[in-house]
Design brief:
Blueprint (H helix, E strand, L loop, with lengths): L1 H27 L6 H4 L6 H10 L6 H13 L13 H36 L4 H15 L2 H15 L17 H38 L2 H8 L4 H23 L1 H15 L4 H11 L2 H29 L1 H6 L1
Length: about 325
Amino acid sequence: MKLLFRKLSYIFGMLLLISLISFLAIHAAPNSFFAAGQLNPNITPEAIAHLKAVYGLDKPLWEQYLRWVWAMGHFDFGLSFASGKPVIDEIAARLPITLTMNVISMVLVFVISLKLGVEAALRSPGAVDRAVKQTALVSFAMPSFYLALLLILFFGLKLGWFPISGLQSLEPKEGLARWLDYAWHLAIPIFVMVFGGIGGLAMYVRSLSLEILKSDYIFFAKARGIEGRVLRKRFILPNLMPSIVTILGLSLPGLIGGSVIIESIFSINGMGLLFYQSALSRDYPVIMGILIITAFLTLLGNVLADVALWKLNPYAKRES
């Protein structure tokens, strides 16, 4: 109970700090949502002043922040400047898409990186090890937006195998065909996200596996004739898991942040695209709402990673 209270206090404190930094950074940025209206001769200064009063932007900055934090505590992120709809409704409509893409990508990155890293270590030096290192190098060097454009040009435009934008076909489908249509549209975006994430994690797994293979218990296991799948399952993977879980928890911000680029390129109506559009129009309530939701999901992911680490390594719980 004491440990749970500490973790909840940590999440609450970090959210307050993130909200304060984000609030100040957004309001320090040049221009505003009403800048376009000021250039329109048909909109009077009185009308702009009235809109600012409606949204509370005529108040001092500290009062705006306190009001926003109080409303956020009641799950009220305000109204979007652009659409006039509640921000929480805008985010709730798009959050499942972004979460689905990120969860699928994280699972695939975890499985593929674990397989590549362990196999590279077991067959080092050799052709498999060199192939994994070359793949990791390309993954590091290839920008996600450039890879996305290459795949769109080749598989989308030239071969016509996959759609290049959107989440579903123009003709609505029902039942299983609907989910297959979703998978067809998400194939290239998820591939880009996975390929960009496996390089670093695969090399990290390879490095850890090489250290494990130098351990005394591995030497004695091999002396007893333990090889192949049993060696991986009983000796390598259990010792890899605590470090891999920690790395996955720390990689959550990068995965969620990458959704902004991927969703913008492929016109996927998720939270990343909403954030990009809101940033261009200076839609403060939507930007702040997305930042807080993203920060909460990241902190929650780190706490879940800690819980998984405690299950895998009870000594970590005593040290925390």
